[in-house]
Amino acid sequence: MTQTAQEWLEKIRALPLKRRTRIMNVCGGHERSITLAGIRSALPKTIELIAGPGCPVCVCPEEDVYQAIQLSLQRDVILVAFGDMLRVPVNVAKGEIRSLEQAKASGADIRPISSPREAVRIARENPERSVVFFAAGFETTTAPVAAMMLEGIPDNLSVLLSARRTWPAVAMLLDSDTPGFDGLVAPGHVSTIMGPEEWLFVVEKHHIPTAVAGFMPVSLLAAMYSVLRQLFEGERFLDNCYPELVRPGGNQTAQNKISQAMHVTDANWRGIGMISDSGFELNPLFAQHDARVKFPDLDTAGRKRAGQMPPGCECASVVLGKINPNECKIYGRACTPKSPVGPCMVSDEGACRIWWSAGVRTNAAEIQPLEA
Amino acid sequence: MQILEIEGFDAHCSAKGVTRDVSLFLLQGEPLAVGDFVMVHVGYAIQKMNAQEARSAWEVHDEMLAAEAGGA
Predict the structure, then answer these.
(1) Is residue A331 part of a domain?
(2) Which class for A120: exposed (0-12), middle (13-18), buried (19 or more C-beta within 10 A)?
(3) A264 domain residue, yes or no
(4) Domain carrying residue A160
């Protein structure tokens, strides 16, 4: 029987849960739906919804953004990137160019795109120019980038790849002393590509209830109900609350395309550090299209504070679900979408930007507790 | 998005009055036809959508318990 979002909500409210329960999501799309639909305030107060590592732009290494900026400034290239990458700031001295947007304003040829197919089109329309696609994303975006490589990539198009895998960040949290959550809502589109089985380790190794969800409130609430009831009944399994798209094994063609174009490697997450097997690197077959191979001599050495978040910015703690966005000291003060300090306030998938979009304007430090 | 036309790995799709050219490259091997719905991400169809609604394994569990109770 099909249930409505309201019915799932009532089933959640009917569960006799006394203890504080923290459910983490690891998808910017999930966080956006949860926040914009007001699901947090509709749930019982004992249930805390945490935004975890679900924003690829937020964790894209600062060095990669800096390299993209320098490529656009030092070489006669057309640099293309997904739009929300353009305003991500790097750590440079005051007065220096600190984002792709500023580089563009100073004359660099930088073009926002919404699909790898646009990168191909721009390369074909400009055969005399070198085009670099700065490609950051999780598996859902990595598969289309792989498809672009394999479909017949133009000679003048290269890729600065910052692709990341979602589950290793969750594994890192779970292997730490303070994972910070009791249940997991697993990402719908990542699971569509990679298969829901990638999340079995959360259940089997860590005994944490997990459910894959789609992006509508009805699917998210079904997944939350599943996780909460698993906690209540003492059962543990991986539930799939997004059968519309998520099939056992995922999209095998997409997985094959990824492995034809790329291989898994250890990767750096901005402000967090290296995570084993958490990224992708282009295969040697595509070396002539690898911007890291093609432009090895960019002057990126001798930088101060390379790799870090900007001063005062707590994006790394937000990304890992250690604090809520408005618990960052500069949220809504020095850092707003109009003048973002950290990447979480820039990207549409960043938790700070999402909370701000939903009307959260007040820093937690300014909110008076209702009762002791 | 709903598929309006297919030519090789390219499809013309529409959703809510907006039309887009979409690559079917990642759905090779999936039988697709005009009228099917696909989930599109950054210009690529990543999966064919089926009619199943959001649900939890707990529903199946509860339905089985109810059926057992009814049959007892």
Answers:
(1) no
(2) buried
(3) yes
(4) 57-165+251-294
Largest CA distance in chain A: 67
Question: B11 to chain A nearest CA, in Å?
Answer: 13
Q: List CB contacts (< 8 A) between B42 and chain A.
A: 82, 114-116, 137, 141, 144
**What are all long-range contacts of A275-279, with beta carbons under 8 Å and residues at least 24 apart?**
A275/A168, A275/A169, A275/A172, A276/A168, A277/A165, A277/A168, A278/A164, A278/A165, A278/A168, A278/A169, A278/A172, A279/A162, A279/A163, A279/A164, A279/A165
Cβ-based contacts of A14 with chain B (< 8 Å) = none
Mean pLDDT lowest for which of A97-106, A196-205, A360-369? A360-369
On chain B, the residues whose CB falls within 8 A of the CB of A115 are 42-44
- Which one of B48, B55, B59, B63 would you mutate to disrupt binding with A, by most A Cβ within 10 Å of its Cβ? B55
Domain for residue A228, yes or no?
A: no
Which of A118-127, A240-249, B42-51, B61-70 comes out lowest in average pLDDT? B61-70
With 80 as the cut, is the pLDDT of residue B71 above it?
no
Three-state SS for A341?
Answer: coil
Give the start-to-end residue ranges of the domains of chain B. Answer: 2-71
- pLDDT top residue among A194 and A366: A194
> Within a domain: residue A308?
no
Number of structural domains found in chain A: 1
Give the predicted TM-score (pTM) of the model: 0.93
Whether residue B32 has pLDDT greater than 90 = yes
Cβ atoms within 10 Å of A213's Cβ, excluding its own: 33
The domain that holds A151 is classified in CATH as: 3.40.50.11740
Residue A111 corresponds to which tokens in the numbers above? 């073009």
Which of A241, A253, A257 minimises the CB distance to B55?
A241
Give me the CATH topology for the region B2-71.
Answer: SH3 type barrels. (2.30.30)
- CA-nearest of A221, A192, A245 to A30 is A221
A27-78 pLDDT, tens digit each: 999 999 999 999 999 999 999 999 999 999 999 999 999 999 999 998 889 9
Q: What is the pLDDT at residue A3?
A: 86
B20 exposure class (CB count in 10 Å sphere: 0-12, 13-18, 19+): middle
